């Protein structure tokens, strides 16, 4: 169980995004083949690709948070010593955590409104709550990743751990 949790912690977002990218590529490749070779366009391919892209977009926020590759002012942060950098990051991560914790209830309401409406997608007949669950999943996972980063930076600020590269 510990190995599975470790693997999920290290690879969840990357694996899902690679699978989503591969699925989008295959689906759109089939669409292009059907349209130009067979002369018959698929009604569902673009819709499904769009929904997969939405999920990938929300997962990418978590991935960027985990890898610390978000937009930031590196040159300003570089002026500080090691603990100062870590303290700056603690403040930054705290603000991020507050933002995502604030957004989670709204994403939940959004999902529940989709469940209550019973709306389905036009081409696939897919319940729209599958698509509208993406913000909630993305915000929850991002809040978890921000919390992980916050703990790492706090250890640096408190001098408990040397920060790796």
UniProtKB/TrEMBL annotation:
Q: Taking every annotated instance into account, which residue ranges of this chain make up the domain Tripartite ATP-independent periplasmic transporters DctQ component? A: 24-154
Where is it found, in Gene Ontology cellular component terms? Answer: plasma membrane
Q: How does it sit in the membrane?
A: Multi-pass membrane protein
- Molecular function (Gene Ontology), one example: transmembrane transporter activity
User: Major place of localization?
Assistant: membrane
From the Swiss-Prot or TrEMBL record, state where the protein is found: Cell inner membrane
Please list every transmembrane segment annotated in the UniProt record, as residue ranges.
Answer: 16-36, 48-65, 86-108, 128-147
Ordered alphabetically, the record's keywords are:
Cell inner membrane, Cell membrane, Membrane, Transmembrane, Transmembrane helix, Transport
GO BP terms: namely:
C4-dicarboxylate transport
Q: Entry's Pfam families? A: DctQ (PF04290)
Protein family according to the UniProt entry = Belongs to the TRAP transporter small permease family.
Name recorded for this polypeptide = TRAP-type C4-dicarboxylate transport system permease small subunit
């Amino acid at each position: 169980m510990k190995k599975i949790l470790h693997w999920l912690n290290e690879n969840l977002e990357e694996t899902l995004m690679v699978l989503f990218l591969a699925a989008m590529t295959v689906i759109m490749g089939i669409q292009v083949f059907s349209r130009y070779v067979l002369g018959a366009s698929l009604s569902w391919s673009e819709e499904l690709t769009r929904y997969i892209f939405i999920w990938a977009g929300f997962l990418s926020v978590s991935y960027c948070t985990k890898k610390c590759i978000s937009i930031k002012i590196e040159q300003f942060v570089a002026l500080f010593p090691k603990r100062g950098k870590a303290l700056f990051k603690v403040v930054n991560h705290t603000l991020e955590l507050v933002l995502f914790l604030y957004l989670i209830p709204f994403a939940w309401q959004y999902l529940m409104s989709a469940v209550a409406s019973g709306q389905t997608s036009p081409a696939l007949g897919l319940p729209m709550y599958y698509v509208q669950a993406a913000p909630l999943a993305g915000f929850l996972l991002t809040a978890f990743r921000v919390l992980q980063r916050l703990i790492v930076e706090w250890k640096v600020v408190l001098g408990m751990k040397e920060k790796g590269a």
